[in-house]
Amino acid sequence: SNIPKIVILGAGYGGILTALRLQKELNYNEADVTLVNKHDYHYFTTHLHMPAAGTDNPENARVGISKLIDEFKIDFVKSTVVQIRPQDKKVILEDGTLSYDYLVIGVGGEPETFGIPGMIENAMNIRSINSVRLIREHIEYQFARYKREPHRTDYLTFVVGGAGFTGIEFIGELADRIPELCKQFDIDPANVKLYNIEAAPTALPGFDPELVEYAMEVLSKKGVTFKIGTAIKECTPDGVIVGEGEEIRSQTVIWTGGIRGNRLIEEAGFETMRGRVKVDEFLRAPGHENIYIVGDNSLMFNPEGRPYPPTAQIAMQQGVTCAHNLVASIRNQPLKGFEFKNKGTVASLGKGEAIGIAFGKKYKGRFAALLKIAIDLRYLFIIGGIPLVLRKGKFL
Ligand code: FAD
């Protein structure tokens, strides 16, 4: 048929918003839309620090894609993309091939380990529902092991590499979980060590210094030992080597120190910086008028010329613009340039504690924690309306 084919790769923040907007804006038979995702559910990456630490159930961090999209309007294909072939306008899946007229790439990023030896092999990452189930089980298992071999203090030593948003949010949850696990396994909490190691001269680089200080104070009180301005030199099966060669023995290293673009993008032949494509103002890959890239795989610069950090917030806004531009292309109407509207940022520090900047103001403590909940609920509302808010919303 002559109906244009739109294929969306990835049902993360960018991909799902693109799909939902297309579903709303396209007229009947104006385009064929196919959404491809590795799993039959969408997960809330921004919530994964909780199930990773075990302070929430992984079920609260995901929702079935069939609950979000109208399958009469969008074809959903559960499969893994193995290759993108812009020259042939084709996408190779693990179990088939799709051809497209327009492509949206939203497959999310990958951990960046900056070549630190052993990090890929020996550390775990907070990336998906499966990866956080592994982390949660692994942590509990260390407590069980320690009961049999109480001389092995490395079982109760937990290392978080990176004090960016993910590292800080995760260690806050983990610090909340430790007393519970200690009680459950009859272990003196004094035996547990939590390290957060960051190479940059400050935790939460780029964030307001007063709020950063507050965050470190809250987390230190919860038992976190910070090593800031300290690079991890190597990650081994026995722990990490830091700074000038100090060894921290640990059976649990969680790496949150960086995100890069997906390897699929480089392999497709796009020009990239750390795996990301510098897209044009309409979110298209340079030289490809029919390929849009949203979320962690796109690179965009603010008016001052600094790259926007990859966030769910920008991915969602890109999804909206991307859908608008796809519809405009199909209708031969002018495209709209992307403009990021910063709605603020809130980082949680465990139960009832957070820091953030919103509405041009700084917030900390209980109110910031409520803001975080409000942001999460707003997201549930945007993608799934009131029913999803009621099913997945955590109110306090
Ligand atoms: P993702 O949301 O990562 O989704 C990618 C999708 O593609 C997934 O569904 C995946 O299964 C699928 N996929 C991947 N590979 C393939 C393949 N080969 N084939 C098929 N499907 C595939 N951002 C904020 O704005 N605020 C926050 O508070 C915040 N907190 C965070 C906390 C944590 C713990 C983490 C890890 C991140 C946080 N972020 C936050 C960052 C944010 O989660 C990411 O920037 C965002 O998820 C990027 O969205 P995306 O659409 O690019 O991809």
TrEMBL record:
A GO molecular function held by the record: NAD(P)H dehydrogenase (quinone) activity
Protein's GO biological process: aerobic electron transport chain
Domain of life: Bacteria
Pfam families listed in its UniProt record: Pyr_redox_2
Domain FAD/NAD(P)-binding per the UniProt entry, residue ranges: 5-319
Keywords tagged on the record: FAD, Flavoprotein, Oxidoreductase
InterPro entries xref list: FAD/NAD-bd_sf, FAD/NAD-binding_dom, NADH-Q_oxidoreductase
Co-factor requirement: FAD
Family note: Belongs to the NADH dehydrogenase family.
Protein name, as recorded: NADH dehydrogenase-like protein YumB
